[in-house]
Amino acid sequence: MILPIVAYGDPVLKKKAKEINKDYPKLSELLENMFETMYNAHGVGLAAPQIGLPIRLFLVDAEPFADDDELSEEEKEVLTGFRKVFINATIIEETGEEWGFTEGCLSIPDVREDVFRKETIKINYFDENFIEHTETFSGLAARVIQHEYDHIEGILFTDKLSSLKKRLIKGKLTNISKGKINADYRMKFPLAKKGR
User: Fold this and answer.
1) What is the DSSP letter of 130?
2) Which UniProt keywords apply (predicted)?
């Protein structure tokens, strides 16, 4: 089932999410719905807060980046079939040079800005079967994970922009929260019903 994606301005996007256990109700159905929602919106990642659930759960499928001609064959190989579920994730360390990449977010349609992130991360998480992993990821795989991880920490990519950039996009963000945007997927707008 395709779920509506919560738009910028909803308080759930600014909350630090809570851990869940393996008995979380209908977890496999939730994951299936989240993947379907993400693919419908042409996203490469989706976090539970983006569908209104303040829980430490996100999923990624970075395969669309594997078609980028500027990537090395090694990185293309890593991204091919890179589809993962992260439950109760904790980034243990971020290392390497910071590098910029233009990011967007399904909760903030039509806003794309350069965000600087560390090159490599080490992350501890549980997969969809509640098997624990500690893994290291680099490059675009790390970036997609970092972006989604921020969501479960109550951080949006726009929070990482300079104050000047924030001022320049303020009007756009206000319009998104009021539903004055045409997204080609289902969205839920926090201020639209209140008529502000």
Assistant:
1) -
2) Hydrolase, Iron, Metal-binding, Protein biosynthesis
Residue of 63, 98, 119, 148 marked catalytic = 148
User: How many other CB atoms are found less than 10 A from the CB of residue 71?
Assistant: 16
Rounded to the nearest angstrom, the gap between the alpha carbon of residue 106 and the centroid of all alpha carbons in its chain is 8
* 97 is known as an active-site residue: no
Annotated binding-site residue? 63: no
Q: Is 82 annotated as a binding residue?
A: no
> Residue 193: what pLDDT?
58
Could you give the CA distance from residue 146 to residue 39 in angstroms, rounded to a whole number?
19
The sheet that has 57-61: what strands, in order across it?
45-47, 57-61, 83-105, 108-126, 132-138
21-79 pLDDT, tens digit per residue, is 999 999 999 999 999 999 999 999 999 999 999 999 999 999 998 888 888 888 889 88
Return all residues near 15 (Cβ < 8 A) that are at least 6 apart: 49, 54, 154
Fold held by 5-188:
Peptide Deformylase (3.90.45)
For residue 103, give the 3-state DSSP assignment.
strand
For the chain, the maximum distance between any two Cα atoms, rounded to a whole number of angstroms, is 51
Instruction: Answer yes or no: is 105 a known binding residue.
Output: yes
Those residues with Cβ within 8 angstroms of residue 187's Cβ, 6 or more apart along the chain or in another chain: 4, 5, 6, 7, 109, 179, 181
